[in-house]
Amino acid sequence: MRTESIRPVHGPASAGPSPAAPPERRRVLFVSSDDDLRAVVSRVLQREGYDVTAVAHSGHALLRCRTQRFDVLVAELSGPELSGPALLERVKRDLPGVAPVYLCNPGTPEGLEHLLVRPFTRDDLIERIECATAGVTV
């Protein structure tokens, strides 16, 4: 019986397919003045594989959009400085393809797409983000 020793291979791999590249992570810009909500949503989305940037107000969001790419903007429908739709309009100057998700309270008039009504669950949040990026209305 013949045995062969296993030797380390130096340099590039000589055989076998190269591993598939991991899927690109969706990048979410989350804007809320609520510290606790920012922390919880960031933690939940990071656990689900999203790349999350959470900021306290629209000014920080606009600065981030000048230097980073985002797939989704999650913002208050009625923000303290800018409403969600007004913020989206300004964000789209730098990121024309960004998809919106708006946080709102119960009783908000219908007519806007991608509303996430408080209180919401982890599944609600992820569903709205996925639908927004796919261009599907829920």
Note down, in words, how this protein is organized:
- With 138 residues, the chain is an alpha/beta fold.
- 34% of the residues lie in helices and 17% in strands.
- It contains four helices and five strands, in the order E-H-E-H-E-H-E-E-H.
- It has helices at residues 35-47, 58-67, 84-94, 122-134; strands spanning 27-31, 51-55, 72-76, 99-104, 115-117.
- Helix 2 packs parallel to helix 3.
- The N and C termini lie far apart (66 Å).
- Residues 1-22 have low confidence and may be disordered.
List keywords for this structure.
about 35% helix, about 140 residues, Rossmann fold, disordered N terminus, alpha/beta, about 15% strand
Poorly predicted ranges (pLDDT <50, ≥5 residues)? 1-22
Give the CATH architecture: 3-Layer(aba) Sandwich
CA-CA gap between termini: 66 Å
Provide the succession of SSEs. EHEHEHEEH
